[in-house]
Specification:
CoA_trans_fam_I; 146 residues; 37% helix; single chain; CoA transferase subunit A; transferase; globular; four-stranded mixed sheet; transferase activity; 6 helices; 4 strands; NagB/RpiA_transferase-like
Length: 146
C-alpha cells in the first residue's frame, strides 16, 4: 500500500474548513486523502460552508481528512480540471520531456517555478491570459455534475 506523508489534491470547490468537491471523474481524490498522513487541498474556488451544508452529497472529501486549504485558480496546470479548463498539452509534453533528464528538469523548474514569485505571476508571465481563456473554452465535463 502507498501511504504518502503528504497528499495534494486539486478540487473544483472547497470551504475554508476543507470540505472539498470534485466534479466529474477524478484521479482518486478521496483515496489520496484517506491514504495520506496529511492532506493539502488546492481549489479553484473557495465557497461558503453554507453552500456545503445545502448540498452535502456533493462533498467528495470531508474536512476531517484535510490539513490545509490553498486557493489556486488554474492549480492543475499543466493538467486540466474537468468542466473548467483543459490540459495544456504542449506544456505537459514539455514537462514530461524534462522529467527524463536532470538538467532539463532543472531548466524547467527555473522557468516555471523558481523564476516567478507567486502562482499569479506564473499564470501571467508563463501561461498568459489568452492561453488560459483558450483552455477554458475547450473545457468539457464528461460525467458527473456541475
Amino acid at each position: 500500500a502507498v501511504n504518502p506523508d503528504v497528499g495534494l489534491v486539486h478540487v473544483h470547490q472547497c470551504d475554508i474548513y476543507g470540505n472539498a468537491r470534485c466534479f466529474g471523474p477524478g484521479v482518486s481524490p478521496l483515496e489520496t486523502a484517506m491514504a495520506s498522513k496529511r492532506t493539502i487541498i488546492s481549489t479553484e474556488e473557495i465557497i461558503t460552508t453554507d453552500d456545503i451544508r445545502k448540498e452535502p452529497s456533493k462533498t467528495t472529501i470531508p474536512y476531517y481528512m484535510v490539513d490545509a486549504v490553498v486557493y489556486a485558480p488554474f492549480g492543475s496546470l499543466p493538467g486540466g480540471t474537468q468542466g473548467l479548463y483543459e490540459m495544456d498539452i504542449p506544456h505537459f509534453l514539455e514537462f514530461m520531456g524534462a522529467s527524463r533528464d536532470e538538467q532539463k528538469m532543472a531548466a524547467y523548474l527555473d522557468k516555471y517555478v523558481y523564476s516567478v514569485a507567486s502562482h499569479e505571476e506564473f499564470l501571467d508571465k508563463r501561461v498568459g491570459m489568452a492561453r488560459l481563456l483558450e483552455l477554458k473554452r475547450q473545457a468539457t465535463i464528461k460525467e458527473g455534475y456541475h
